[in-house]
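Quick question, first post here. What does this chain look like in 3D?
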Amino acid sequence: MTLPLRVIGPGWLAARKKLNAPSWVVFESRWLAPDQAANLLDGQVVLIPTSNRTNGVSPRVMDTMATGACVVTEDVPALHRHFVAGRDLLAFRDARDAARIVKELLASPARISEIARTGWNKVAACDTLTHRARFILEQAGLAS
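> Answer (accepted):
Ran it through. Tokens below.
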């Protein structure tokens, strides 16, 4: 099975050989502005927003989940404070692990739908403006 797959982000072009990706996978080594990312999210099946190892989970992880896409992202400690890997999203340890996970997903459309649905439900239940406002107030020491 060959599906169109684009891997976009700084450094991914260099990782192409390590992943041993098939020729139909397109790699683009560039940064995406938030509005560009939003346009790319529409209608995607599997997305891999990267996390920030020093600050935790990228906001794009939740943003992507909110679109109803199946998320595969880096396994960082902060991820497990918010999500259950294997249920809400899938997490990889290295490029080889990421390739294995994506290959398994592409062979199982039902699994893609299941992860996307539970991820969307998780974000819809907890990532509201009220939650974000409460977090900001807590971080500023203004919560009562």
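The mean pLDDT is 79.
The chain has seven helices and five strands.
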